[in-house]
């Protein structure tokens, strides 16, 4: 392990009571890299990044999750509140479930910045909206989330997750609620903006083809185990694990 790595998962296992969801998973993700964790529902991929985001209060976590050399599994609730948004952020599957329909887009930014004692600067926010290709920023700010399309809501979620310039962005199935035409553009945008800001991305998806679109490396999870990991081109062209071949076959059969 190298402390210069942005984030390191060191023999991480996660259990809920008698159920073991993640089993001895180890990997590191370097600063500025896009790393995709692929697997079907129940493989443990979302559990892994939710542990790294401090969301698993009822689970038992063994091993270490190191951010710049410090074990973040030991953080207090106060430390987590400060870290979320500043050092790391999360983009969820469906932003419509957590964006308040009673708050304007501008108020969402104000609330987030206020929570981290950051001043509200409309020019800073408009610049971020521009980065995520939300044009007519002034109009967007006065809109409510439900007035935006699904793709625009996800772009807004990306903007909110990046406004404080976190080191790491976790993206948990960020396009699965979108139609096929919008999915690719949102993935491309995610890579474009995070690269512009120098952020590390850990993408979770069941779609290995979507992962291959933007990831530098891919890790494949099956039944809680990390069964394969490598450069995207190698995993896609020369899969070593039978489960990886099944994932590849499933996307190749989709017309």
Number of H/I helices? 10
Q: What is the succession of H and E elements? A: EEEHEEHEHHHHEHEHEEHH
Overall geometry: globular
Measured by DSSP, the beta-strand proportion falls in 25-35%
Q: Structural class of the helix and strand makeup? A: alpha/beta
Strand arrangement, major sheet: 6-7-8-3-9-10
The chain-level mean pLDDT equals 91
| Main pleated sheet | 6 strands, mixed
How many DSSP E strands? Answer: 10
Q: If you compute it from the alpha carbons, what radius of gyration comes out, rounded to the nearest whole angstrom?
A: 18 Å
Q: Report how far the terminal alpha carbons are from each other.
A: 42 Å
Low-confidence runs of at least 5 consecutive residues:
none
In terms of topology, how is this protein built?
Blueprint: E1 7-16, E2 19-29, E3 34-38, H1 45-52, E4 60-67, E5 70-71, H2 77-83, E6 88-91, H3 105-115, H4 122-131, H5 137-141, H6 150-162, E7 168-172, H7 180-197, E8 200-205, H8 208-214, E9 217-222, E10 225-231, H9 232-237, H10 242-252
Parallel strand pairs: 3-8, 3-9, 6-7, 7-8
Antiparallel strand pairs: 1-2, 1-4, 4-5, 9-10
Helix pairs in contact: 4-6, 6-7
Notes on the structure:
This protein has 255 residues and is of the alpha/beta class. The chain is 38% helix and 25% strand. It has ten helices and ten strands. It has helices spanning 45-52, 77-83, 105-115, 122-131, 137-141, 150-162, 180-197, 208-214, 232-237, 242-252; strands at residues 7-16, 19-29, 34-38, 60-67, 70-71, 88-91, 168-172, 200-205, 217-222, 225-231. Strands 6-7-8-3-9-10 form a six-stranded mixed sheet, sandwiched between helices. Strands 2-1-4-5 form a four-stranded antiparallel sheet, with helices on one face. A hairpin with a 2-residue loop joins β4 (60-67) and β5. The longest helix is centred in the last third of the chain and has 18 residues, at 180-197. The radius of gyration is 18 Å and the shape is globular. The chain starts with 6 loop residues before the first strand and ends with a helix.
């Amino acid at each position: 392990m190298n402390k210069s790595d942005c984030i390191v998962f060191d023999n991480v296992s996660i259990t809920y009571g008698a159920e073991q969801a993640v089993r001895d998973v180890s990997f590191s993700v370097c600063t500025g890299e896009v790393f995709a964790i692929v697997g079907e529902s129940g493989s443990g991929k979302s559990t892994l990044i939710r542990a790294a985001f401090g969301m698993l209060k009822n689970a038992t976590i063994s091993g270490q999750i190191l951010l710049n050399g410090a074990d973040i599994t030991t953080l207090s609730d106060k430390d987590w509140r400060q870290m979320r948004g500043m050092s790391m952020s999360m983009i969820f599957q469906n932003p419509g479930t957590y964006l308040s329909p009673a708050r304007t887009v501008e108020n969402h930014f104000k609330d987030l910045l206020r929570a981290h004692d950051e001043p509200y600067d409309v020019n800073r926010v408009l610049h971020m909206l521009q980065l995520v290709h939300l044009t007519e920023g002034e109009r967007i700010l006065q809109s409510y989330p439900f007035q935006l399309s699904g793709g625009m809501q996800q772009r807004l979620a990306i903007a909110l997750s990046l406004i404080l310039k976190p080191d790491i962005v976790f993206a948990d199935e960020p396009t699965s609620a979108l139609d096929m035409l919008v999915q690719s553009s949102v993935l491309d945008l995610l890579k474009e903006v995070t690269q512009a800001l120098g952020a590390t991305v850990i993408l979770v998806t069941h779609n290995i083809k979507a992962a291959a679109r933007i990831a530098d490396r891919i890790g494949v999870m099956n039944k809680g185990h990390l069964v394969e990991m490598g450069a995207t081109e190698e995993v896609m062209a020369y899969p070593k694990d039978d489960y990886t071949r099944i994932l590849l076959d499933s996307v190749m059969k989709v017309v």
